[in-house]
Amino acid sequence: MTRPITAGVDGSEESLAALAWAGREAVRRGLPLHAVHAWRYEPHEAVEGDRDTQAGWVRDAVDAGVRTVSGRHAGLEVSTDVVEGDAVDVLAAAAAESDMLVLGSRGHGRVVGFLLGSVGQQVIAGTTRPVVLVRSGDRATAEVDGREIVVGQEGSPEDSAAALGFAFETAAARGATVRAVRAWTLPPVFAYSPGSLKLLDEAGGPEPYENKALAEALQPWRERFPDVPVVEHVEMGSAGQVLLSVARRAQLMVVGRRARRTAVGARIGSVAHGVLHHADCPVAVVPPA
Prior knowledge:
Shape: elongated
Number of strands: 13
Distance between the termini: 19 Å
CATH class of the largest domain: Alpha Beta
Largest sheet: 11 strands, mixed
CATH topology of the largest domain: Rossmann fold
């Protein structure tokens, strides 16, 4: 089954930017584009129209955005779906049937960055598919001016396999370079075990050990995508800070997700959360394989 690239659309400037991004990516990957909107009937004296009338208004708004994207990409297969229901449930269900889900996110400059609302956070934390967040000011020119696909790698090769795979597939579709970033910090002295000290000694120290770990994680993806140029970037510092330090190089930032549930709601991991709020390029959050 061919999975579409799905964009959540509500008529806002942010969602239209997400739809435009999704359309370009669908063309690159040879996939259909699907636009979905979740809505609720508002039976209120201040809101005119019955259920069918309001549904028609919503569909007209979605269709207007879709027509714009279709006009830019002749031959692109496009479908739309207006679903009455909770936005998180509707978007999560659409994501489950998609190659990826693309959402708009409000951005107010490089300092504030993305404003990730509760809907977006819950969808990212709950879905098993990659979710891409796109700012309202995103432009296609940022994808063709030599910028890279930046991806964070941490832990073992298996830990970051899903994020690396998404980054390499995207880079191959765009003819772009992958910059794989691995950040490291010195652990407290008491955290060193005899086994870890032996591994560090055999590698020649912490930094050579981290370089080796990144190279091992990248090896299967280099073999699978031999035409994709790769830059290996190992730097001391927190993962979020190191990734953001190279954000200006990126046409897309790819991070893994460590979702967990707490008493106050969904959490997607500190690195993904920090990058989503401060990177000024689209960000893909990829769940574990």
